[in-house]
């Protein structure tokens, strides 16, 4: 009889430990899920802001050339004027 009680106690202890491990794993996975969701949201927001910046700079700037190429273009035009 005591052998059955001992085995039953070990079985209950194993079940309690298994439940405890499952709870800890669910908490860790929940935190990781929140973390991944937050990082992905920030990445999508950054990409959308970058695309909006490109669209606005193209619309406001009037051309897709960078500032350096425009300044070089102006320098060439000035050189042609003085030639």
Give structural notes.
Helices cover 92% and strands 0% of the residues. The chain is mostly helical and 83 residues long. The model has no long low-confidence stretch (mean pLDDT 87). It has two helices and no strands. The protein starts with a helix and ends with a helix.
| Binned strand content | under 5%
Helix content: over 70%
Low-confidence stretches: none
Distance between the termini: 113 Å
Structural class, please?
mainly alpha
Number of helices, where a helix is a run of at least 4 consecutive DSSP H or I residues: 2
| Average pLDDT taken over every residue | 87
Query: Which radius of gyration do the C-alpha atoms yield?
Result: 33 Å
For the sheet with most strands, the description reads: none
- Helix-strand pattern: HH
Give the overall shape, derived from the CA principal axes. rod-shaped
Number of E-state strands: 0
Question: Which helices and strands, and how do they pair?
Answer:
Blueprint: H1 2-61, H2 67-82
From the structure above, extract its key features.
83 residues; mainly alpha; 92% helix; 0% strand; rod-shaped
Write a brief structural summary.
The protein has helices at 2-61, 67-82. The protein has 83 residues and is mainly alpha-helical.
């Amino acid at each position: 009889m005591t052998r059955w009680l001992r085995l039953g106690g070990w079985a209950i202890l194993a079940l309690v430990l298994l439940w405890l491990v499952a709870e800890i794993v669910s908490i860790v996975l929940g935190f990781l899920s929140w973390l991944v969701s937050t990082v992905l949201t920030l990445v999508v927001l950054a990409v959308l802001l970058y695309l909006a910046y490109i669209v606005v700079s193209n619309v406001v700037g009037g051309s897709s050339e960078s500032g350096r190429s425009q300044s070089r273009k102006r320098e060439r035009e000035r050189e042609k004027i003085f030639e």
